[in-house]
Amino acid sequence: MRIPNERRIVLEVVEDGLDAADDWIAEHVEPHDIVVTADIPLASRCLKEGARVIGSTGKPFTENNIGEAVATRDLLSDLRGAGEITGGPPPLKKRDRSRFLQQLDEVIQSIRRKHPSNSA
Description:
By secondary structure, the chain is mainly alpha-helical. Helices cover 46% and strands 7% of the residues.
């Protein structure tokens, strides 16, 4: 995998395992890091560590909405297991990308305002 030649970007290779990458992320995330994920359990773990979490459609995960997101995920998983629901999430649309970019910019600016020494 090619990565940009940037000191703040690092490629981490983790061991094989169902949640090995998620475990690595949750163990290494720090307060005020930004995590981008559609994985709701990972989002919950990262929020507990003080990270800011954004879904792939631009929806922020927060302490106020993660409980509902986990409950909805569990319900849909049960319905899929019972054969009630098939298929996955809808494909990303242009407005999802726009919302994501706007939310990411807002989170970056918010962190910079609160921690100006970390904005380099």
